[in-house]
Amino acid sequence: MIEAKFRWQTDELNQSAVQQLTTDYDLPDLVAKYAVNQGYDTPESVQTFLQPTMDQLYDASLLPGMQAAIERLTQAIEQGEKIVVYGDYDVDGMSSTAIMVWALEILGADVTYFVPSRFDQGYGPNLEKYQALVADGMQLLVTVDNGVTGVEEFAWLKSQGIDAIITDHHELPEQLPDVTAIVHPRLVAGDDAYPFGELSGAGVAFKVASALLEAPADEVIDLAALGTVADVMPLISENRVITAQGVAAMREDARPGVAAILASAGQNPEELNASSIGFTIGPRLNAIGRLADPMLGVQLLLSDDMDEADQLAKQVETLNKERQKFVEEITTAAQAQLVAEETQHQVNVVIGADWHEGVLGIVASRLVEATGKPTIVLTSDGVQAKGSARSVPGFDLFTPLDAHRELFDAFGGHASAAGMTLQLDQIAELQKVLDQAASDQRLADVPQPELSILGNVTGRDFNRETYDTLQILAPFGEQNPEPLFQVDVQMLQQIKTMSDGKHLRFTAVTTQGDLPVIGFGFGELADQLAGRFEKISLVGTMSQNTYRGMTTYQLMLKDIKAEGSSIMDWRTSKLTQQVLQQPADYIFFDERLYQQLSPQVGANGRAISIEDAFNYTQLGTMALVDLPDSLEQLQELLQFVPANAIAPIFYTKHPSYLQKVPTKADFGKVFRFVQSYQNVNLSGQFKQVAQHLQMDPNMLNLIFKVFLEANFVTIENGFLNPVADPETVNLTETETFKAFMRRRELEKQLIYSSTSELEQLLSDLSKQEN
């Protein structure tokens, strides 16, 4: 069995609304269903959704604080004041900085910019840096993507006679800084509120640029799209327009910095979409802020020289590869730590010496995905620990930690993510607080996150027509996800791993056509999926793949579930030590074999005797080392002890199935021999007897046992003697002979059957009787 990571939900749709959109407005069925599912169920809302145009943007002057900000910026430009734009080290912050600097330069302002280092100044207002900027002659400070928390820092600036304009989109604190203007989409509530409160930092900067220029700042809408997608803002309303128009601009004529990043990543700009920002451009720009000076990112985005952009992009690509290396190394070490500790905590806390703090958030996210638990990843310098936390849906990580700020030297965040610095001797107490929070919030009962499925499809539905139809719904992202489809599968073929076993690709055989499938992060299921299940279902999105001029359509796997235990054929005639090194639960039916081989089972496996097996309520991969006594014994095990997978090895040293069945002539030959000799020393003369009779030793041994049961011979102290005038017995009715024949039939079914025959047998034995 493979359990789904998510709850699969096929929503009940307003079928009349779907029918109206398909009939009256000639929309494809899938588009109509998706639109209605997203809440667009009127002709007007659907048209706005499907055709995101610039005229749907709200007037920039409606943003709270905009008028005061434009007046002060205009004054500074006219009077030649020295303006500094102060940004942030993530993609949204870099994009915001580039937009604001571009707009001010267009208008002839004396402007410079500064992007703080994650490691030196940290996020947001920094008094020491503000003091240095004032000393350098700054006359007006403009923040982008930060600022609303800097009450003390801006109070100092005001005391020095320096004006400040804050443009931000983060959560508003109770007390706001006293500055010339705060431009924020959620600053004012009620009737005077701005119509859309979910702009990114780059979106707010784009609005300020538009207000300065008294027209939409089309030239930098690509940068606004970068910040919007990379900051995982909801792609609805204005954000959908910004992203759609920004992606189109990049695809048509990418600025040098973006084109250089795409070239270094091997991506064609003409194929660029919102996912390209999330998975190609964004991670590379973020790598700068994680490992180096984020000023490099702004320089790259503002560059209008292709040669310069290429050189900068090469530096970025190097940083990104370094970032990937750090993430892989730390993730591997952290996972090993969790395995070694065999932790029972519902919240993971892992710590390593000198792990690079710039990537700890990524590692925490990886561990959340791998374990399903909220996770804190910390790096230690021997005295202090610093790190990042990531949560799971339904568990508030911030509130319980915020209530224990005495544990931390520094702390901040929100319900799903946090950053912290604390002394090493406080980590045990941190774990106690988290354990209590998990209990208080009933983390164990938090339901799985949900996947909203648009419908069931088969392999035949994955074609150009369907794919092109779905692109009408783009750009995809937060709150406008790619449509998810369920595919029920008959079997899986050509299962292969990629990237050192991390990822997976295979062909899904459906009732109507075969379907290529790519599963990022599903590599660990490769062996299990190679087996046979009663039922397999996949959920994923449709993607297009073009290779050497040939275009195919494939499922990008999001989740999988399979009913029944996976059955994997591990049968072998040689039980080598390598066979026992898999991460499996090795079941031994023979106690002597268990005693002999259990020490050879690898560190990632367990050796379990058949008697102890019934003490387990769930096993991972159940590897059946040797043969059971009977199919009934095997059936009892399979039905009583559930397992994710069944891997029959069924080793036997002396297979009965390959042994000749004694005939009447064979019995007669041996009978005449034993009647002719006295005191045959079986321990010393057995081989000579077999050679004399020209008989296989295994068959001779069986005949001697049958004769012993039939009272044809006696065996005492290893010496065989005939019984005088024995009674007539049907030798094939002796229990010894019937046991041999039963064993032979058992081996035929379990060892010498085809893989498909064995899979069917084990599947049938595993089914509970009604």
Short account of what is shown:
The protein is α/β, with parallel strands linked by helices and 770 residues long.
Overview of the structural elements:
By secondary structure, this protein is an alpha/beta fold. Helices cover 41% and strands 21% of the residues. The chain has 27 helices and 26 strands. A hairpin with a 4-residue loop joins β14 (491-498) and β15. The longest helix has 36 residues, at 306-341. The model has no long low-confidence stretch (mean pLDDT 93). Residues 302-329 form a coiled coil. Keywords: Coiled coil, Exonuclease, Hydrolase, Nuclease.
Would you report the number of β strands? 26
Helix percentage? 40-55%
Side-by-side strand order of the widest sheet: 1-12-13-17-18-16-15-14
Instruction: Please give the CATH architecture of the domain at 56-218.
Output: Alpha-Beta Complex
| Rg of Cα set | 36 Å
**CATH C-level of the domain at 56-218:** Alpha Beta
**Secondary structural class:** alpha/beta
Main sheet?
Answer: 8 strands, mixed
Strand content: 15-25%
Shape: elongated
* Number of H/I helices: 27
Residue stretches low in confidence (pLDDT < 50, at least 5 long) are none
Q: Quick check: average pLDDT?
A: 93
CATH-assigned fold name of the domain at 56-218: inorganic pyrophosphatase (n-terminal core)
For the termini, the CA-CA separation is: 19 Å
